[in-house]
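#help-structures

NK: newbie question. if I give both the sequence and a SMILES, will the prediction place the ligand too? trying with zinc ion
OV: yes, paste both and it writes out the complex. here, I ran yours:
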Amino acid sequence: VPHLPTFEFFDPMKRLFPTLALALFSMSLGSCTADKSAGTSAAGSAAPVKTTRNDGYRTPPVRGPVPRNPDMNLPSGRPKGPTITYSRVNVQGKYIAITFDDGPHASNTPRLLDILRARNVKATFFVVGKNVNLYPRIAKQIVQEGHEISNHSYSHPLLTKLGDAQYHDQIKRTHDAIVQATGVTPRLLRPPYGALTQRQREWAFSEYGYPTILWSVDPFDWKRPGSGAITSRILSGTTQGGIILAHDIHAQTVEAMPATLDTLLRRGYKFVTVSQLLAMQQNAATQTTGTVETVPVTE
Ligand SMILES: [Zn+2]
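OV: that's the protein plus ligand as structure tokens.
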């Protein structure tokens, strides 16, 4: 089931919503701290909203114990054998991979990184090359914090509709942007909408060593169904060896992550990167000794 065409990048609401949310947030802050008069109220004003960058945002500290993903020194691997497309991986043990597409995003990606770091969860980010060039420092932070970063095309087109030269350009520009920004060579391809022809898959594998990575759990978070729905869809769809699809460009998705991650950890799942998951398939006997460090609860 492709996560589909109501096209993410050109939806004006998408751009408007974070701006509005930020404006409302600053207005409410203003009303708490400025005790002077109502003279500065912006209500009813038609003046354009001036926005500022949100780089300094930090996620507030979590209250109470948070489950922690175990430390696992696992190798990353490429698949051997004929399969070059994966939507899940057969593994022994409750290993899963969570993936975040379409970023980096100026404010939502740093917030997500804080949430992941607090739980020692390592994720895989399928980034859009254009956004890597916009936010190279965030791309670098993704890598520095132990996450995997990989190719999701340069401008998020439906790749199956492109000619060879255009397709190759989408892959190469993104590959180069990631290397340039992070110093790391991406190892995986996730095509926008999950759409890629067999010939395109084979080319990505032979030219870049990229297996094509789809997903087994799709919460349709890009439709913004609310963070509660995103959490419950991911929880009900996740099974051992699964690959979870999510999008770090959406505030709702980021807001859904604390409850989602904590519940999966308490259910005994261990988060690894997609390349680590692939490596486990080659050596299904891989065992680790890590465990979740809080008392499991019954859901
Ligand atoms: Zn995408």
